Amino acid sequence: MISRTARLCSSAQRFNVRAFSSSLGVRGSELRNDIKVTQGKDDEQLEISVKPIPRINEPLETKRARLLYQSRKRGILESDLLLSRFAAKYLKGMSEEELLEYDRLLDLPDWDIYYWATNNFEITPLKDEWKDSKILKMLQEFSVNRQKEILRMPELKEYK
To answer: pTM for the full model?
Structure first.
């Protein structure tokens, strides 16, 4: 099960989390199996677990096209830039096993991927299951941007 976590800092946002939990008709920190509110040191967190859609017998070209789209349309600019450029460079040459690993990585929250890719483990500690990940290591090396390129969203023709 994959967790999506939103940090809520302002009192208005805290109220919204409490209102959200009340609207579900539950009390306490455990809302449902897939939703919970936890109290952090400085803020509350609303954690929603979302199971990825199983894709059985998906053709490799369909998988590549889907992963390309998911790499380009993340929701935050930092992840969009990093993952879209990574996909443009590596996606077409990935093996089936590497595509599956990349697919699992893209199921994670954007900020986790971004902080792990940029080796910022103080903010989001790296989970044990990703410590030996070939794809994450490739993404970490890619994020260094050794050529000091100005980052921009690649044109779709750059993926071919």
So the answer is: 0.68
From residue 81, alpha-carbon distances to 52, 67, 114, 122, 150 in Å are 23, 14, 10, 22, 10
The CA distance from 51 to 34, in Å, is: 9
Domain range summary for the chain, segments of one domain joined by +:
2-50, 60-159
Pairwise CA distance, residues 107 & 72, whole Å:
14
Q: Which of 19-28, 100-109, 112-121 has the lowest mean pLDDT?
A: 19-28
Mean pLDDT of 18-35: 49
Q: Under CATH, what is the fold of the domain 60-159? A: DNA polymerase; domain 1 (1.10.150)
The count of other CB atoms within 10 Å of the CB of residue 32 is 12
User: What are the C-alpha distances in Å from 39 to residues 24, 49, 135, 149?
Assistant: 18, 17, 33, 41
Q: What tokens does 49 get? A: 């677990």
Torsional class of 93: left (φ above 0), alpha (ψ -120 to 50), beta (otherwise): alpha
